[in-house]
Amino acid sequence: MKVLITGGAGFIGSTIASAFAERGITPVVLDSLITGRQEFTEGKIFYQGDIGDGVLVDQIFQAHPDIAVTVHCAALIVVPDSMTDPERYYRVNLTKTLDLAGHLLRNGCERMIFASTAGMYRPEPDLSVSETSALDPQNPYTRSKMMAELLLEDLSRAHGLRVISLRYLNPIGADPRLRTGLQNSKPTHALGKMIESYENGVAFTITGTGWDTRDGTAIRDYIHVWDIARAFCEAAARFDAIVPPVQPAGRTGYEVVNLGTGDGTTVRELVTAFREVVGDGFQAVDAPARPGDVVGAFVRPDKAWELLGWKPEYTIEDAIRHSLQWAERRRRSAA
Ligand SMILES: O=c1ccn([C@@H]2O[C@H](COP(=O)(O)OP(=O)(O)O[C@H]3O[C@H](CO)[C@H](O)[C@H](O)[C@H]3O)[C@@H](O)[C@H]2O)c(=O)[nH]1
């Protein structure tokens, strides 16, 4: 059995590919390499190209008729970029998802696991989100993901596409065996900036200390990328039980499952966890919030446990350790 992974040369897609391979399911990677990395495809079946390219997708299925499920990760994912160039985000994340779905159906591949975002929810007053929380996406990136989900749900009703959409927030860490990790060598996210500060021997700046959270700093639901990859594998393994080929009355072939820790991590808690890993010398200073920052949210994972038997296994400290090891490896290979 094989799995087609779009965006399989990216941070999350490449980790998912390794997780499937470890379970004896051969990944077939389709990636444009616009942001993905060629070296993340080494040793894997790899096609360079666009998810909207029907001829290429047909070729892939002719060569690999045993592809049983598609994991659709290919997307643009940078929120600020989506605000300055929304057309590109809608074209890639929405229109090309529509094209891809048509190509998959034409080739008889009706199972899709969609990499989505829990950023489309309006957080409850306690900042949690669950599958029943209202949708209220705040930027073109999260809107493009929500619209892509709506169109996939319509295709499931009309054409028998079956979809499990996994929604999560901030992936961190790296493949524990350090095959792959974050591609971006200049990340702007909190853990990336922490690693940069640590490596440069300067204090980390906590941007935003006046939020209504347990310690005043913003909250996120950081999950180890390997835990996310495991959830995709569980979704594939249980696909037909979760979304059966024939739907019971009143059901569509579309299921949403959120992935999260259930309590999240504030920026100060992330700093504390970082100190646990690197030692007490690591300093942090307070500063005003970044423009456009939000208080954040955390994800209740009850449904993931019920349907996928999944909950995160790695701690935040594990994820920090793996991120540091990956940063070190990348630096050495660049030297
Ligand atoms: O040097 C820093 C960097 C960030 N933060 C704070 O840490 C929190 C989390 O910020 P991140 O940038 O890590 O996470 P966001 O969820 O705000 O956004 C990031 O993660 C998203 C994924 O969910 C998108 O990829 C987005 O483009 C990317 O910036 C925020 O309060 C931020 O102000 C700091 O305190 N110091």
From TrEMBL:
<dbReference type="Pfam" id="PF01370">
    <property type="entry name" value="Epimerase"/>
</dbReference>
<dbReference type="InterPro" id="IPR001509">
    <property type="entry name" value="Epimerase_deHydtase"/>
</dbReference>
<dbReference type="GO" id="GO:0003978">
    <property type="term" value="F:UDP-glucose 4-epimerase activity"/>
</dbReference>
<keyword id="KW-0119">Carbohydrate metabolism</keyword>
<dbReference type="InterPro" id="IPR036291">
    <property type="entry name" value="NAD(P)-bd_dom_sf"/>
</dbReference>
<dbReference type="InterPro" id="IPR005886">
    <property type="entry name" value="UDP_G4E"/>
</dbReference>
<protein>
    <recommendedName>
        <fullName>UDP-glucose 4-epimerase</fullName>
        <ecNumber>5.1.3.2</ecNumber>
    </recommendedName>
</protein>
<comment type="similarity">
    <text>Belongs to the NAD(P)-dependent epimerase/dehydratase family.</text>
</comment>
<keyword id="KW-0413">Isomerase</keyword>
<feature type="domain" description="NAD-dependent epimerase/dehydratase">
    <location>
        <begin position="3"/>
        <end position="244"/>
    </location>
</feature>
<keyword id="KW-0520">NAD</keyword>
<comment type="pathway">
    <text>Carbohydrate metabolism; galactose metabolism.</text>
</comment>
